[in-house]
Amino acid sequence: MTRMKYTVSVAMSPLDQLIEIAKTAEELGFDNIALPDSIFYMEKQSEAYPYTADGSRMWDENTPWVDPLILAGAMGAVTSKLRFYTNVMKLGSRNPLLLARQVGSVANLTNNRFGFGVGIGWAPEEFEWCGVPFAKRGKRVDEMIDVIKLVLGGGMVEFHGEFYDFDRLQMSPAPSEPVPFYVGGHTDVALKRAVRIGDGWTSAMMTCDQLAETIGKLKKMLAEAGRGDDPFEYQAVCIDKFGVDGHRDLVAAGVTDWIGMPWVFEGLGFDAPVEQKKDALKRFAETYIHSGWQD
């Protein structure tokens, strides 16, 4: 049986807790930290948030956020084995060449312990107020990903596309290993994007049955694309499977990487004291990581 990895999400945690959480997660044997992304909070939203039943956001104007690439560098400096990935970074409002510089820097400074989780973004305000049109966002992000992967591959490169156009340039040093790309999203377009360019797929909040259905669809698509034997991660936020038996069900569904906040499962809030979060991490690790149920 392939061992399921365990990833700690740090979404909406106070900034002064983040480094301590990372150090504790590494000490306890967690595999990854999932780094959330939010640029700003707009007072009025013109589109419904796609991952809640009523379209409202799960945070407000005072909820703490930090740039995930800066956070990966800071956490990487105090750890040696723990990996990090954005979960997911909304590309649509950003510039691909600037992102390539940042992603390459993080990969190099963490000794290749970084994965790039990517999505488009849902809020027109984030696009428009950052100087990027909301229209054609999917095609633009596809081209952005091509640009970033090209530049990160190293050497002198050029690109001439519909949205981005530049002559020969080089960013040095290139990462010594390819940066894995993980694609977020539940739509057919997002799944096709994951199959085309991804090293894995990332879910938002889903049931185990929904995960099994989507993973089955992705495996079929990968096989049809000639990628059936390629390594591919299925990173999941599951809302209905708990306990060791529940995690066995997730493995059976094809999940390779569990993402969650152990303190939330104990009834603690996002802003709970860091010592309580560390205790929750320890209890979670004892139950799932060190109990031997995957041996």
From TrEMBL:
Keywords: Flavoprotein, FMN, Monooxygenase, Oxidoreductase. GO terms for molecular function: alkanesulfonate monooxygenase activity. Residues 12-233 form the Luciferase-like domain. GO terms for biological process: alkanesulfonate catabolic process. InterPro entries: Lucif-like_OxRdtase_Rv2161c, Luciferase-like_dom, Luciferase-like_sf, SsuD_RutA_monooxygenase. NCBIfam families: F420_Rv2161c (TIGR03619). PANTHER family: ALKANESULFONATE MONOOXYGENASE, ALKANESULFONATE MONOOXYGENASE-RELATED. This is LLM class F420-dependent oxidoreductase. It comes from Mycolicibacterium moriokaense.
